[in-house]
Amino acid sequence: MRKAQGCHSCRDRHLKCVRQAGSARCDKCIDTGRECVIGMTIRFRPVTSVRDRAHGDKAQRHSFSYADSQVWVRTPSVTFAPPARTLEELDAEMDVEEERRRSGLDVEKASRTEATDRSIEGLSPATIEPSSMSGGPDPVRKPFDAVQPNHLPAAGLRSILDAHHDGRQDLSLDVGDQLPAISPSAFFGTLSALHDPLTIWPIRNREEARYFHHYVQHLGPWVDVCDENLHFGREVPRRAANYPVLSNAIMAVSARHLSRSSNTQDTASAKYMSKCLRILIPLLDDPVGVLDENLVAAIVILRLYEEMDDDDEKHHLDGGKNLLNSIAHFIPASGLGEAASWIFLRQAIYVSLTTGQPLDIDLNNYLASTSFHRDDAGSWANRMVWIFAKVLDFAFQQNDIPTAQKWTSLHDEVDAWNVAKPWHFQPLWMGELGAAEESPFPPIWMSSPAHGIGQQHYALSKIVLATSDPRKIKLGFGTLEARKAAETIILANLRVVIGLSLGSGEIPATMFHACHILCACGSYLESAADRQAAVAFLIMVEQKIAWRTGRIIAALRQQWK
User: Fold this and answer.
1) Segments forming the whole domain that contains residue 14
2) Which pTM was predicted?
């Protein structure tokens, strides 16, 4: 094990890091406008053998390879328990957990026997209970019973979580008598509230299996565009077998998307949504104490659920935001928690971009992410997403007046990413604007979805920086020229964002960005051809991914009048 010296930026680019005495940044970072971050990087070497010189001058090699006949000492199993405030509370939780484990094994055995009998007899509609995940009553699952769909408030998860965080205790007025106030202790501790020893596998309800399959095939890849490990497409479905908060979130978002895709009435998603609320609401009393990457992943999925509403930017999940600001200690783990945090940041950007509100997220937490040390396409895209988040915070700040110095610093940081990005971020093909066969938004083909996300956020950064340039505010002879130059930059990059979306095929993430920037900057489109092409693009998005764009079209037409 050895300690590497130098800043992260120089190590990533394999450059010698030279820092002048008394300077806070190295020479390379000053020249390129990069953020100079010095931190300890530990490198581990795999050791398969050692040499021992204790027996004379001739060293003896001792290998760590063991024979198949090697005898190993048995060690007792380790049980991890949530932190208790007192020793008495810990003892009580352990006793309850032991009783629940014993009863759970008996119920699981009986459930498997019942499943075997059903597989022999064959499943028929008369033997399947549509409202139950396991096909029958389950005493262990009682805390997760659903609220009746007609008791779910029309405002969705937002109204319930907002009431919860505002300190209002009259949740029964919004949800109905079927959703009583539940304390975290009713779930036998944090771990038991999230993890259920009784697996839902295999799903014995055809409709729920259809929902689950739809998520794996279509919705999971929506959010994994910058994640090479595909956590939401692979890891989340596996965890959903034992985590009701994940399984019900998957069912809710899939049921809603299928109903929107087929233009049918959504009668099932509210049931699964209410089950998630029964788990989330009591746990959000102490988001730090119950911090868990499964909760963050569930909130990301539920955010997809709410994005399918026409007014999705108003349904921001405050509970998810509070959790996200507390997950800095597991962001470097490069697991589901880190993947969920980057997706949640992109979702928060959607809201900020369309509402003009700054991000209420501590962006410094992300500096510990492995995306700042890896060289894959997804990591480079995440870095550009992070820079764009800083640009939005600058543009939408409410208390401070934007300064030219800060604007220039962000502008240089955006350009530095564009200069340093790998060669494979260059487009495979770009259509020519003005060609007879091309539309006002020529398609741009990239080699992977992550490349498209990175380039889109670069173009979005240029647009937002152009709209927030402090030089346009000052009065003078150069003000008009500065405004015309800004409009030229906005239109050029707006075409790039939409072109990347058109060239990406059917990748929803790129379509979301294009729709939201049209909502924010569509008023800059002046020609009739541009406006018609923008409306046609929005209609195409709704047809392909079932994300409603009628509200954006109506707002644009009102602005164009």
Assistant:
1) 1-44
2) 0.65
